[in-house]
TrEMBL record:
Residues 40-118 form the Adaptor protein ClpS core domain. The keyword Protease applies. This is ATP-dependent Clp protease adapter protein ClpS. Residues 1-27 are annotated as: Disordered. Residues 8-19 have a biased composition (Pro residues). It comes from Ramlibacter humi. InterPro entries: ClpS, ClpS_core, Ribosomal_bL12_C/ClpS-like. Involved in the modulation of the specificity of the ClpAP-mediated ATP-dependent protein degradation.
Length: 124
């Protein structure tokens, strides 16, 4: 007959998920606390377009229609707001989508030879 020199190591208990704190009560039972912290919504980013003295109004309207999916009326209102206030918000998106919109606008402006500028910034 064969005997083991020592007991095989007991499997270590699985670690509890960090989001669900585990508390042991007086009786030694394991109690899962109710989770009070909710998952935060992702940070959103607004694409802000800047005014300049050279880019034609019509070009800005077409860019806003094309890349920000606005109808002509809305695109015209946004363009005029930028023209009058110096800047304006074209749309609000997740970080990656906002960054892509900025690149698309910059590339369209570069190709057309206009100094149109836009950027994305976190929404407060
Ligand atoms: N100010 C420009 C003009 O008078 C028009 C314009 C509007 C340019 C919005 C840029 O983001 C802009 N031709």
């Amino acid at each position: 007959m064969k005997f083991m020199a020592s007991k095989p190591p007991a499997p270590s208990p699985a670690a509890p998920p960090k989001t669900q704190p585990v508390v042991e009560d007086d009786g030694g039972s394991v109690v899962l606390e109710r989770r009070t912290e909710k998952t935060k919504p992702p940070q959103m980013y607004q694409v802000v377009m800047l005014n300049d003295d050279y880019t034609p109004m019509e070009f800005v309207v077409v860019v806003i229609q094309e890349f920000f999916n606005k109808d002509r009326e809305t695109a015209t209102q946004i363009m005029l707001k930028i023209h009058l206030d110096g800047k304006g918000i074209c749309g609000v998106y997740s970080k990656d989508v906002a960054a892509t919109k900025v690149e698309q606008v910059q590339e369209a402006a570069r190709q057309a030879g206009h100094p149109l500028q836009c950027m994305c910034e976190p929404v407060e």
